[in-house]
Amino acid sequence: MRTLHAAPASFIVPPAHHLVSSTPTPRGALPSAEATIQSHARFPLSPRVARRRRCARAALPSAGTAAATVDDAKRDVLIALSQIIDPDFGTDIVSCGFVKDLEISEALEEVSFRLELTTPACPVKDMFEEKANEVVAALPWVKKVNVTMSAQPAQPVYAGDLPEGLQKISNIIAVSSCKGGVGKSTVAVNLAYTLAGMGARVGIFDADVFGPSLPTMVSPENRLLVVNPESKSILPTEYLGVKLVSFGFAGQGRAIMRGPMVSGVINQLLTTTDWGELDYLVIDMPPGTGDIHLTLCQVAPLTAAVIVTTPQKLAFIDVAKGVRMFSKLKVPCVAVVENMCYFDADEKRYYPFGQGSGAQVVQQFGIPHLFDLPIRPTLSASGDTGIPEVVADPQGDVAKTFQNLGVCVVQQCAKIRQQVSTAVSYDRSIRAIRVKVPDSEEEFLLHPATVRRNDRSAQSVDEWTGEQKVQYGDIPEDIEPEEIRPMGNYAVSITWPDGFSQIAPYDQLDMLERLVDVPRPATPAVVSS
């Protein structure tokens, strides 16, 4: 865990626009921290959160009331902090587990605690700090409040065996278009430096071996990758604090090789690089939907994808193929960037390539956010000079659009991680496995023995004959899982008492016989995951 530090001055980016206002919000704009938190007052909370808030208000000490013991004081502080709702999860920050290291002075006058957020790039971290100070300072016995902000250690939401280089990366974002020349590399680089400006630890992986763009778009002092002689790992180069890896930095220029060799090079560059701890690794995907893309999706547990297109119909046709590919691989597409949309002249806005390609992607595939980028000579020139536009002009209109895109990516990745981490859990109080597949409102219950008996791996089913190796009676009726952990965006890994590790895809769990009329426990459920 590390304490958050202010971003360098060259990285300061303008705040996101407000959505909750009296005027319509431009397309692509996202809510500011304050507006996002306040917006939850306009919509109904879940019953559990609503009950917690009512109890919190009822339990708040009245004016002049002092805490009797340290335990009472801690309870008062937690009740006060439970009034703060995380806008992404819809749950209070106490239930989210953000409150750490709560300490009360012996005189019951000074309160110290740490708020550990899911990412240092959290767009509402300043608002959280301000609100936490406010609600705790309002307690009648509190004279001083010390709030420290931090972020969770970088780690993937993945249960499988990852290459060592990827084990300390929280989120991997694919920037894809499936068509060349639409500005995908421009979006990838500027998104990465926007996330860095928000306080995150970021890396960029240029996956285009045939035509690497990264060496032209950034200007690192060291333009060659170095191999650590002891660990044999690749050490990435850096520019303005962002780690960079590209075949163009390998001293080979552009590759001339066959497909299988390219996949091997991509795999080696990505997995043997010592990325260290990263909050976001942005992958600049090459055009197409071939072997390289499948290799990347299989090797790296992609958190989400950002789709780049242009207004032309031809661009939409190719982009649609990419969206379908990510859908099959269970990688959610969180945003569409429509590049080269328009230019402003003579106090008018012109659309030289037409309109509607980006909106068509959003409507047809249900991708939640659309961002427009204008035709700007400075945006094109920044890619040639080696200084990203968001660094060269952090207060400009283009930087504001990328700031909104960055906020979107941070929020959507946090939601995805939360959904995946809580999708499947074991409720010991009713001896049932709870399943709520990401992007679904339905929750259902499964008997543990049913899940174990329906394993379809080679250890349970003969691959040649399809004959079931594990018989019904081999699995005891009272079997309970020891551990359930997410495995990418498509499955969970379930460890059983006999040491067997079962991979259970969400699609398979959805097809199993469900429990109905399960008696509810009198006491709150104890959930293990």
TrEMBL record:
It is found in: Plastid, Chloroplast stroma. Signal peptide: none annotated. It comes from the Eukaryota. Its main location: plastid. One of its GO terms (biological process) is iron-sulfur cluster assembly. Residues 435-502 form the Gamma-butyrobetaine hydroxylase-like N-terminal domain. Keywords: ATP-binding, Chloroplast, Iron, Iron-sulfur, Metal-binding, Nucleotide-binding, Plastid, Transit peptide. GO terms for cellular component: chloroplast stroma. InterPro entries: FSCA_dom_sf, GBBH-like_N, GBBH-like_N_sf, MIP18-like, Mrp-like_CS, Mrp/NBP35_ATP-bd, NUBPL-like, P-loop_NTPase. Its cofactor is [4Fe-4S] cluster. The keyword ATP-binding applies. GO terms for molecular function: 4 iron, 4 sulfur cluster binding; ATP binding; ATP-dependent FeS chaperone activity; metal ion binding. Residues 74-147 form the MIP18 family-like domain. Belongs to the Mrp/NBP35 ATP-binding proteins family. This is Fe-S cluster assembly factor HCF101, chloroplastic. The lineage of its organism: Eukaryota, Viridiplantae, Streptophyta, Embryophyta, Tracheophyta. The gene is LOC100827268.
